[in-house]
Amino acid sequence: MEAMKVKYLEKMSELYPTIAKASTEIINLQAILNLPKGTEHYISDIHGEYEAFSHVLKNGSGSVRRKIDQVFGHTMSQQDKKSLATLIYYPKEKMALVKKQEKDMEEWYKISLYQLIEVCKKTASKYTRSKVRKALPEDFAYVIEELMTERGDITDKESYYEQIIHTIISIGRAEECIIALSELIQRLVVDHLHILGDIYDRGPGPHQIMDKLEGYHSLDIQWGNHDILWMGAAAGQSSCVATVVRICARYGNLDILEEGYGINLLPLATFAMTYYKDDPCACFKMKGHQERNPAEQEMNQKMHKAITVIQFKLEGKLLMRRKEFGMADRALLDEIDYTEGTVRLGYQTYPMLDCFFPTIDPENPYELTREEQEVVDRLVFAFVNCEKLQRHMQLLLKKGSLYKIYNHNLLYHGCIPLNEDGSFKEIQVYGKSYKGKALYDVLDSYVRKAFVAVNEEEREKGRDILWFIWSSPNSPLFGKNKMATFERYFLEAKETHEEKKNPYYYFLEKEETANRILEEFQVTGDCRHIVNGHVPVHHTEGESPIKCGGKILVIDGGFSRAYQKETGIAGYTLIYNSWGMILAAHEPFTSTSDAISKESDILSDSILVKRVIQRKTVGETDTGVKLKERIADLQELLEAYRNGLLMERL
């Protein structure tokens, strides 16, 4: 046996010092391989909508309700099932309402505890006792474990179980126990969570979503273009910083920065009121329907315009410095005729809706004024030194990547850049050409360099590539020929607003394209899929999220309220359990209070993508592959003990 293998087995023998211990572990792992695979939950494009995201996380996109149906079937009314589901989602709030209406709370506690225990048993049935034990809440671990192991066919301990329930109620711990059981069900109903990008922007609570994800038991994240933008801002890339602030202003979410992350916007506000004091800033109204007092709205619009002009200046300077990005046509400030109030795009000239630019020097339009530079410096400093933001970005780095292959499924947010003929498009990244998987890999490496590279030149390349990924036509996360931000603000001509999608989106229904992508990323297996976020599915126009005969699943979560009128639905999420794949279609989420008081859920329909006759086991998953490798190593350790190559450590 080679020396390295012997050394490895010697290290293993520290964990399994005897034949008995190694044998026991083999038996344990072999048994786990035959358990049903855990449930995976896929969510995409959350866009800061914390309440809707939190609700979908609590209900597991219908998984909780399915468990209730499996347990109680026709023995419980639909209304009672809804009430039980709401109790599981919001135990504390639901009990507060029940206490106002229920006369016999002790009886209600007793019934609810028994119901929750039965649902707990069902959700825990596919896991080992060890895994369930680790998930148990500390205060009730022993009690819940005892109650979950109750068997209906054993009468000897019936009074024992009844006494546990009675004691929980009599000592005033029923509510705490109900909360613990509800949270345990939420924890067990989903084994692993996939976030396919765009946690940030548009909605008011991305920081709250990140707080929640920090404590989630098992997850991975595929970065979206909006997440990349925030990562760029946190890394100190000034164009990304300005864009983050602009988008927050555009959607009336400056509170995210000031209250969520403690970033001081007073320097920007002071600057805006100085230079845009008498400017109505009519092109810079907030999107959405937030009710704001006139003074607050006026201030927001002035800050919005101020940071937008700063952004265009910073981007122009970046594109002059990074000519290799090939985006010189997106530097438009020097195409403006400041006397005539027009701008030249290509061979055409358009009148501008707003041409009041007190800080732009027509002879040197991209040069920041001293005051603008001071605003930028202070904002960059605030982003880079915000402990909470940096902690959230570290979570994105540790749990995230541009793509992931998990259980024979390829997960990514945007697209694979293609040419018009459907072939992989070659993209230049700092002087070298990449396409397909290689493009994703090199961009992923530069994202990480932005935060950890020791060489300052490489670190700066990483910071700038974050902006490139955000807005370049060649970025797999953007996937359009241009980002028409300038045109949407300043030009009335709708044709200038058009952002043409990469050919990838027109090839989604072609099986050869899906197969080529899967082969490029070395995704194997008979049951392989691409799970894709980023693009809303237009349900009202008859568009389906299932593409290419089920090989490609587009699951833009549709959480963003801004798109729900266009799509006619609040998007899709995906569940992949041991029986197959289920797409959950969602109705728009109104509010948490409605979900509690009206017992309203947001699951409107379930679409069966694929169902298997025989349940998938752990042995058929990526985890199973690792367990089989571990078993093989343990068997070699056993052989080494039995051959006398290693001595047992008695």
Structure characteristics:
five-stranded mixed sheet, globular, seven-stranded mixed sheet, 17 strands, 26 helices
Mean pLDDT over the full residue set: 92
For the biggest β-sheet, the strand order reads 7-3-2-1-15-16-17
| Main sheet: strands, sense, barrel | 7 strands, mixed
What spatial form do the alpha-carbon principal axes imply?
A: globular
Low-confidence stretches: none
Task: Return Rg in Å.
Answer: 28 Å
What structural class do the secondary elements suggest? alpha/beta
Helical coverage, percent range: 40-55%
Q: Give the end-to-end Cα distance, rounded to a whole number of Å.
A: 24 Å
Beta content? 5-15%
DSSP summary: helix tally: 26
Counting DSSP E segments of at least 2 residues, the number of strands comes to: 17
Structure, described:
The structure is a single chain. With 650 residues, the chain is α/β, with parallel strands linked by helices. 50% of the residues lie in helices and 11% in strands. It is built from 26 helices and 17 strands. It has a 7-stranded mixed beta sheet. Strand 2 (192-195), helix 12 and strand 3 form a beta-alpha-beta unit. The protein starts with a helix and ends in an 8-residue tail after the last helix. The mean pLDDT is 92.
Secondary structure elements and pairings:
Elements: H1 3-15, H2 19-32, E1 40-43, H3 50-59, H4 63-72, H5 78-89, H6 91-101, H7 105-124, H8 129-135, H9 141-148, H10 158-170, H11 174-189, E2 192-195, H12 206-214, E3 219-222, H13 225-234, H14 238-250, H15 254-260, H16 266-275, H17 294-321, E4 336-337, E5 342-345, E6 348-351, H18 370-384, H19 387-399, E7 400-401, E8 403-406, E9 409-412, E10 427-429, E11 432-434, H20 436-452, H21 456-471, H22 485-490, H23 511-520, E12 529-532, E13 546-547, E14 552-554, H24 561-567, E15 572-577, E16 580-586, H25 592-597, E17 603-611, H26 622-642
Parallel strand pairs: 1-2, 2-3, 3-7, 9-12, 12-14
Antiparallel strand pairs: 1-15, 4-5, 5-6, 8-9, 10-11, 13-14, 15-16, 16-17
Helix pairs in contact: 1-26, 2-26, 4-5, 4-7, 5-6, 7-10, 7-11, 13-14, 13-19, 13-21, 14-17, 16-17, 20-21
